[in-house]
Every structure is written in C-alpha cells, then in structure tokens.
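Lab meeting, action items carried over

1. Structure of the two-component assembly. Owner: GW. Status: complete.
Input record:
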Amino acid sequence: MASELNVRYVARLARLDLTETEADRFQSQLTSVLGYIATLDRLDVAGLEPTVHAEETPTLCRPDQPGSSFSADQALANAPASANHLFLTPRVVE
Amino acid sequence: MLTSLTVHALRQQLRAGDITPRDAVLAVAEAARTRDRTLGGYLPLTDSQIEEALRLADQADVSRPLGGVPIAIKDAIAVAGDRCTCASRILEGYVSPYDATAIARLRAAGAIPLGRTNMDEFAMGSSNENSAFFPARNPHDPDRTPGGSSGGSATVVAAHSAFAALGSDTGGSIRQPASFTGIVGLKPSYGRISRHGLVAFASSLEGIGPMTKSVADAALLLQAMAGHDPLDSTSLNAPVPDYLAGLEDGVRGLKIGLPREYFIDGIDPGVRAAIDTAVTRLADAGAEIVDISLPHTEFAVAVYYIVATAEASSNLARFDGIRYGHRAERPSDLNDLYSRSRAEGFGAEVKRRIILGTYVLSSGYYDAYYVKAQKVRTLIRRDFTNAFASVDLIASPVTPTTAWKLGSFSDNPLQTYLADIFTIAANLAGICGISIPCGQSNGLPVGLQLMAPPLAEPTLLRAARAAEIACP
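Predicted assembly:
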C-alpha cells in the first residue's frame, strides 16, 4: 500500500502548499513510515471492534441551555483581519 | 538557591513566613533570565508576564494548597491573557482569551502560572528540536536533548529554573523528558484532568500532567487539577481521591508485572541495569515481582502514528489564517489563503504528520489504515486489561536509551518514532503512568516507568514514592 502515497495530491487535500524539495523529502520519509506501518498487515483483525477512544463512555449531552460565551470583541481579538465585528476572508462569492 | 526547593518545601517556607510569594516569583524570573538562557527551557519571559505573576503573588493566600507557588506552563496550555504558541510560527502573537480548566483549578488552589515552556511544535516530537524557535537543552549535558515534547518543562524543573511545571502527554511527552532529565513526570489516566484549553493534537490520546522534583509534588498538583469538567465531555465523572493520603504506604502486598516485550535486546545496558536495580529494590521493599506479557507491544508505534496523525490532521485544520494565527499576504483566493498560511506557519514535522493523517483518513485508505489501527488498538487495550487482572502495576524502562545528542535523527523521523516504543501503549490504552528517576547510565539520568489501570493513580503514586525512596 505504501507505494500508493502521492504526497503532492494529499497535501492539496490538506490545504498545505509544499515546495518541491519538501514534497520530495516527505515522499521518501513517509514512504518509509508507511513501510513500517505495514507490519500491522501481519495481524488478523477480523471480528474485532475498533477502539475509537481511550475510555468506553457514552456520548454525553449537556442541557440545552444558553450560557455565557465570548463577546464579539474577544472572539475577534486574535483575528489577522476583521472589520465590523466580522472575520475577513478573500471573496468567496462573485 | 530558592528555586531548587520542591513545591512541598516551598509551601512550608511560605506558610512559615520565611519567604513571600513575591520572593518565589522573582527567583523564578531570575533563573529564567540567567540559568535558562543557554538551556532554552522557557520561551523568553517578558516583563509583563513577570508583572502579572507579581500581581498574583501580592494577592496570594499561602494557606491554600498551592498558595503562592509559581508553576511553569507548557506552551500548549491556555492561560488567559498570556500568549500560547505551541512553539509554532502559526500561533506567534496569539493571546489566550480564557484559562484552561487545569489552569483555573491551579489558580483556585492558589498557584501562580509563570513562564511558557518550550516544546516540540504542537507537541509533535520527542526531542524538542521541532520547536519553531530554538531547542531546549538537557541540563545534564547541554549537547543533548531534554526529550520531548514537554522538553522545556523538563529542562526548567531539572535545572531548578522552576519549582514545578505542567506538561502534556500524547505518546510519552511527559514521561520521556522526565526520564531524560531525571525528574518525576506523571501521565494521569485519560480523562482524569480536563483537556479544555490544551491545544488539541490527538484528542483520544492526550492529557495534561505534572512534571516535578518529587512524587509528593506530582500528587499535590494532580489533586488540584483532577476531576470532571463540563467543558470536556471526555473528562471522567469519577470521584477524586486523596492522592497524598496513602503515599507513604509502601509496596508491600503489591504485585508488579515485568512485561517481557519491554525488556528486549537493543536496550542500552546501563538503562537495563538501572531498571533491574530499581525492580530488585522494590522487591526488597516488599513488592511481588512477576513476569507478564503484553503480546501486541510491537504494533503500538504503528497504531499510534496512524491514530495520532489522523486526529492531528483533523484538529489542525482549524489553523487556516482566518480566525487566529498566521495569515499569508495577498491571497489570490480562499484556497490560496489556507494553503499558503499553513505552509508558512507550520514546521516540517507538523506538515509530515498532517499529510500522513490526511492520507490514512482519505477515501480508499480509511479502512486499510485508520479502522485497522483502531482494531489493533483494541488488542493493545486488551493486553493491559488482561495483565491488570493479575498485577497491580507494570514496571519497565521509560525509553530504551538515555538522552541522545541533538541532531541525531534530524532527517530520520521513523527512528525517533521508534524510540517511543515503551510509552505509547499507555496512551492507546488510556491508563496512567509515571517516570521516576532511578539512577544513571554514563552520567545521564534513567527513568523507571510504572503503569497502572485507569484511575489507579493512588496505587501508582504510592509505588512511585516507594521507588523514589528505594532509588535515592
């Protein structure tokens, strides 16, 4: 399976620009990591339940009651670009 | 030197009125700006951070459990009004709008958060060399790593530039640096301490824990932070016992298992000898030592690097240059903004893990990698459940070697991943574990790891205290 990894394609899925040098280096490094991960192929996992979490507790729900939360100013305090109590992004609708 | 005190000893002096909380804060600030300069345990301490700590010191109530005690905080844990960068360029300048629950509870116990400790970027690494700023160095030999990812916390505690620190442990990031620097590092059971306000890397694996100069200090800090938190639905809703009460009860009557898969060829002979001596002394102190097996140990690293990277790729999707963090200039469109902001903000290891995690979650590979890893995780958990049916604790080395030279694995991530072999399984299983100093190999500290079932911290700490007495 390891040979199927295409770092440039996956980086696009992850919205991560890579330089040519990075892409080549990660391709070789991650191919070797995936080669190691292939040791899992020695195990027969048929019939096993996946563990999705470290503890087996049911999903908890809190009461649907409004509580306190950040003010708009607090929420926007770390924004790289904001105006009129809004986060600014490049235009997404023409 | 005031900062060489344990938290317990500091409290005594504070309560006796021999010193004031202000003295304690100033001593840490002085150490951070002198001794730590060449060790890089702290991200540079600012005047405003010191002023804020002095303000808290002047109001401190020393009768409280941690009243007036400064505690260094890993740069992944939010302290309201303080910066929080995860040692990443992408969060440079970020200021936390709220306290992590662990911090709020430390404050309620009277503690003073002081200093942001260096770390591997987003807690991804085992050597602190993945810090975007500079590596922390091992006080025992500055050419060597203090370990990681909580390497800065280990450095400041071991060098006595702090009384105690908080770290976080996703695959060994508290225990391994504690081992490399000769201090105590406690990874509590999954969910024992709220993760609210710990910047998320791998949510199903990680947690906050204390890094201290003594087992009693670790118990004291755990006491202050443990408990259910409505803001973290995975925090355990279980009673919090008195972690200090049984600390001196010794190991008589406890059964300690030695997993044969953790005593393998390839362990540094000096590490092996130190562990063997520690185990013999625990036996002399009354523990019953038995051989056990954790048969799926060899698969833990592979499972971890699927599960942890999958969760990381999802958690780190939030860093997109919009709501906080670095933003690329003059984007041509939204995708360009995302892709370039992330490219400019993240370091190499973070990028590698995002790519690996995205790949194992991608259509066509999800079952072959991610679901398969989760199934093998079931086998690893089962190994521990079976083992703990017959023993109270498991003992092992924390790492196969002592601290390595900085730069040893710079172009070989797989080699550093493999060094996590003895710590990773505890995170996959959600159990608690601790590293206690147990001697040296070639002048470098060795850590004994003890592991116990979920929520068995009282037993774990009691045995760790016995080991601390047995390995002076």
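2. GW to write a short summary for the group page. Key points so far: Residues 64 and 212 of chain B are 19 Å apart (CA to CA). Residues 2-225 of chain B form a domain with the Amidase signature (AS) enzymes fold (CATH 3.90.1300.10).
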